[in-house]
Amino acid sequence: MGLFPVSPEKETALFARMEKLGVRSDDVAEKFIRASGPGGQKVNKSATCVVLRHGPTGVAVRCQKERSQGLNRFLAWRLLLDRIEERERGIKSAEKARAEKVRRQKRRRSRRAKEKMLEEKRRTAGKKQSRARVRPEG
């Protein structure tokens, strides 16, 4: 059995990624704390939340997605490697890109853009209405 409760392929891929990024397990401080949020007594009694801090870069992650400490530990390592890779390469993560997209979508339109959009909607509605069947009056 490996260090994490996942398939050997996933564990091997994680170690290969650590090697590629130059992250040593000695440089990472692991801490297990009690999770927060819903879950009742089980959450309050067991330390399933994992906190990892990479010393050389100062990157810290916290993971409490699953109820199992081992699985949270694996997910935290993956998240830590994602953040370190993002920091090294300056790549915008998919999560940040998605958040930015939502922010742009929620941004208020200018008055002129809004009027233009509404005019286009009215024009489309007029076209659709002209295609409707003609009903006899009476």
What does this structure look like?
By secondary structure, the protein is mainly α. The chain has 2 domains: 84 residues, Double Stranded RNA Binding Domain, CATH 3.30.160.20; 33 residues. It has 5 helices and 3 strands. A 3-stranded antiparallel beta sheet has the order 1-2-3, with helices on one face. The longest helix has 21 residues. The termini are far apart. The model has no long low-confidence stretch (mean pLDDT 89).
Summarize the structure in short.
This protein is mainly α.
The CATH topology of the largest domain: Double Stranded RNA Binding Domain
Shape: elongated
Mean pLDDT: 89
Structural category is: mainly alpha
Throw out a few tags for this protein.
single chain, 138 residues, mainly alpha, Double Stranded RNA Binding Domain, three-stranded antiparallel beta sheet, 5 helices, 3 strands, 54% helix
SSE inventory with pairings:
Layout: H1 8-21, E1 28-33, H2 41-45, E2 49-54, E3 60-63, H3 69-89, H4 94-106, H5 111-131
Antiparallel strand pairs: 1-2, 2-3
Helix pairs in contact: 1-3
